[in-house]
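Hi R.,

Here's the chain you asked about this morning:
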Amino acid sequence: MRSFLVLCVCLFLATAVRAQEVIGITSNQQLLSIGQQTFFLKDLEQRYSDSTIQTATGFEPVGKNIPVFPKSTINNWLRFRVANQTDDHTLYMTAQAPGLPSLMVYKTQGARLVPIFKGGNMYPYGDRPEDAVDFVVDLKLRPGDTATYYLHVVSNHPLVLPLIIGSRVSTDRFSDTNVFIIGAYFGILLVIFFYNLFIYFSVKDRNYLLYIIYVFFLGLAQFSSSGFAFKYLWPDVPGLNRYMVVISSSVVCMVAIVFAMYFLQMRTYARRLMPVNWYFLISYSIAILANLAGINKISYNILDINGLFMAIYVVSASAYIAWKGFKGAIYYLLAWFIFMVGLIFYVLKNYGILPSNIFSNYALYIGSSVEAILLSIALADKINVLTREKEASQAKALEASRENERLVREQNVILEAKVHERTKELEKSNDDLNGALDHLKATQSQLVESEKMASLGVLTAGIAHEINNPINFVKSNIKPLQLDIRDLWEIIGQYENLDLKGDLEDQIAEIDAYKREIDIPYIKTEIGTLLQGIEDGATRTAEIVKGLRTFSRLDETELKKVSLHEGLDSTLVLLKSTTPGNIQVVRHYEAIPNVECFPGKLNQVFMNIMSNALYAMDKKHSGQTEYLTVSTAMYDAEQVQVRIADTGTGMPDEVREKIFDPFFTTKEIGEGTGLGLSIVFSIIEKHKGRIVVHSTLGKGTEFQIILPIVHPVN
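And the predicted structure, written out as tokens:
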């Protein structure tokens, strides 16, 4: 019992001595981390307040340079004692926890506590006494004074709370250094973002798009967790701080997994790892939903569990894929390995295993920026690899082509030798086959051209009839013209034979008598009349030939812009002689542009359709006036239409459905081949147009031809 009492007294004295440990700031340049000299008390039941906390027992030493509270719900009191041994009028405490929801700082003044700071990211940013993302607290401690301070910390997520005390000069220098380093980090991310955005618009590679999204959300996550997003983006909406860190961190991890899937080509090199990717995507989605629902414990547990595990997984997966032979995974492996090292250094610093210095404090930013740079290099290297692979593939293809060419040459030599050996045996067979082929071609050409010949027969009859009259007229005028010219030559001969030494009066009188005999004035009139008749006949013949040339279009093998009205008119002219007297042609032409087409083939379409129309009206035997109506108009902004309507016999539906089938005809045997409308259909198809038929039995038929103004081939 005596020994137990001695032990208790010793423990009490030891605790009392430690509780009274004073943090002494001796220099204006000194900046001291006070985690080791700080004590904390958990108060989840909220039993203490600023009026009762001084009497509370159970304070425990933090024991680390940086206090770490891993629970998702925190309500803790911290205590430390500070002595201002400088000549500065006050000291400042910096709490490096931009994500801290609520921080209250109290200073002992006699037997009571006086609040000297109230803040946190649950309050508007403008309420802070210092314009800083960290919480800078004026300790109001004059030179030579010593005071005890209590911090009341409330958080709904795990918390790392570095506490630093120093003078105004050292505090500002520390804050400026922090802003400079973080600013440099975001500057690097911005350069990487816009550089790769420019490359993406150049190459349109999906990996660049995913990487750009990854860099954007990585910057947003770091911007949010560092407190700068609260300062610059939503200073008056503190409620967003509850969601943005979790959401942006979860999204950047999800994008990182998707980017890894596509960049590392996991479906090709590591298909078995795909379920792990889905685990991360689903778990981070759950973290976002839990955060939106206010269940922060689940959100931060997922982030904590997945953070290091995901880095290890991506490093392992990239190492495996690099081992499988994908060279682009090497940069990826190095990038994530450096990021993982930075993350480990940062965590070890937070848990007091590593000392707090520039490197350990910003290890996460350094690792993250190096990772982003290396990933950008990896993407550029991948483009180079693809370029090299393409060049190698082209070289292989060229080599294969040359090898194939060599083999072909060798095979040609062999084949030529074999052909030469068997030439005599195959000559007779070749002759027979050539004869059969010629016969087949002739038959095929005859079938295809038969309809053209039928149209040509109609055309020939019309031309013969039209040309015969002016030619006969010219021919009948030639004989009288020859006789008149012979008489004139006779008179001219008499004048040339005048004997200038003889009696000129008698000779001239003889010539005048001959002139009266042949009636010179009549001859003059007759020659004029005959020449005018020959000229009229020649002009008429030229007009007919011109119409024929317009119809035939000898340059039909080339696409040309022509007037459809000229083609329709020339066709009607050539059909005029075969048009029955009771049929009247009606034209309704609207203003349409020239159409790019094969003119001769379109004229053949018009000839076939109009010939059929004339045939149908002639077979109607109505004895009344029938009408062939030809009209043109715009169909829409890019097409024109030609309508050819007749008042003939019309067609039933079963016939109308077959009229474009080859060899189908309703004409008598010997009157048609059944190929006319089939050729029409193929010509319209060649022009990328459409042909529509409307027919009523006993009333007539209308063909509607729709053609593009500009041929689609061009």
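The first strand starts at residue 23 and ends at 25.

Let me know if you need anything else.
M.
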